[in-house]
Amino acid sequence: MGMDQTALGGLITRRRALAGGAAAFACAGLRCSGSWVDSLLSLGDSEAPAEVFKGDAPDDRVWALWQARGWVKEASHYLKLGANVQCKTCPNNCILEPGDRSHCRNKVNRDGTLYTMAYGNPCTFHVDPVEKKPLYHFHPGTMAFSLATSGCVFRCLNCQNWEISQKKPEETKDPAGPQLRLRPPLPRALTYEDLARASLFPEDVVAAAKALGCPSVAYTYSEPTAYYEYAFDTCRLAREAGVRNIIVSCGSIEERPLRDLAKFVDAAHVDLKGFDDETYRRLNSGKLEPILNTLKTYRDLGIWFEVINLVVPTYTDNLDSIRRMCGWLADNLGPDRPLHFSRFNPQHKLDHLPVTPIGILLEAREAARAAGLRYVYIGNVREVADAGTTYCPNCKRAVIERDAYAVTAVRLDGGRCRFCGTPVAGAWGA
Ligand code: SF4
Q1: Whole domain around residue 171: which residue ranges?
Q2: CA of 130 relative to ligand 1 center, distance in Å
Q3: Across the strands, what pairs with 199?
Q4: What pLDDT digit, counting tens, does each position of 50-91 carry?
Q5: Which residue from 92, 114, 260 has its CB within 8 A of the most atoms of ligand 1, so it is best to mutate?
Q6: With 0-12 CB in 10 A as exposed, 13-18 as middle and 19+ as buried, what is 61?
Q7: Sequence-separated (6 or more) residues with CB below 8 Å from residue 359
Q8: What is the CATH number of the domain that holds 204?
Q9: Are 335 and 371 within 8 A, CB to CB?
Q10: Claim to verify: residue 305 and residue 225 sit in the same structural domain
Q11: How close is the Cα of 350 to the center of ligand 1, in Å?
Q12: Distances, alpha carbon 168 to alpha carbons 102, 151, 165, in Å
């Protein structure tokens, strides 16, 4: 299976897709407005939708199995263009003819309606410390029920979860056999076969988190934007049940679905993968501006979030670029926004590259501090003793110490430095 532009006679642009179709132009999303449609119509041909998988939607037999499981749901943010549809969840803005599958692999156009196939069917879930997200200033030492489905909006050459992110739902789940709905009391162990056919609907996720003593649910590992409808419904129920929501994302999402989702989000981790479009194009098949917009939206909404930057040799290890990134973060998000530099390990399509040298990570940390950022960390290293230490921005003493994902010391009282009383930015407590 591969992506095929030529079947359409070339890449469809928004303008071409909309041309002549205005009379049939309908908004299937729940929150479509005239100004949104107007702005779409005003976009130039250079902003072409992403490539999709032509004719790769499942056949009737598989679709019926998926429906019987409850693993499909109509997408929440899309436009109808006659028989075609355009997803408006992420900047890929996929246009699908009937029978097509989306760039993220999770959505299909079936008879003129856009459906997600990644609903209630996570391909993996675990209980993780929030430090693993990483979130260092959000209820340290607590656990998050963490899940993912297949699919991703990006194509990162270095993806560490490519075995799920670069797969379609049918490659990670099996709808054959008896229904297996996971609800408390949860089984002590699952076989791979059980996991492949297991359902975990939004209410089940919330119940599982509570049963396992997790105050948070984390939408992570692959990309929650690619399983937006599932994440959204789960976030809403979790909020009602007093369970926190953590979004771990590349940040490539349209503003409208982001703002809708953010009503239920307690914390986010955004992966800022580089600081120029060329790097995003080469390394991730993405663009920088939507990520910066997401960061500014989270800032404006007052949601706690932290930023991570993976330092990939020859791709994102240029110190000038790192300095520009840190300057932008300090200027636009303020000095209290935590920044995590992370060490690259060879994998996926970049398994020929070396691990990131420690010296570059230390220089990056210095550059971030010089830009005025107060909380700068280095992840995936054992060689730097204070890589995960939070220092008081005033007296410079260590107020939180960590060993990998374990919190080994907390010297905060009510979110203030125990030594000098200075507030430390974040959301504290259990
Ligand atoms: S979420 Fe998926 S279907 Fe929607 S625009 Fe992004 S890649 Fe395309």
Answers
A1: 124-336+344-375
A2: 27
A3: 181
A4: 999 999 999 999 999 999 999 999 999 999 999 999 999 999
A5: 92
A6: exposed
A7: none
A8: 3.20.20.70
A9: no
A10: yes
A11: 25
A12: 10, 6, 8
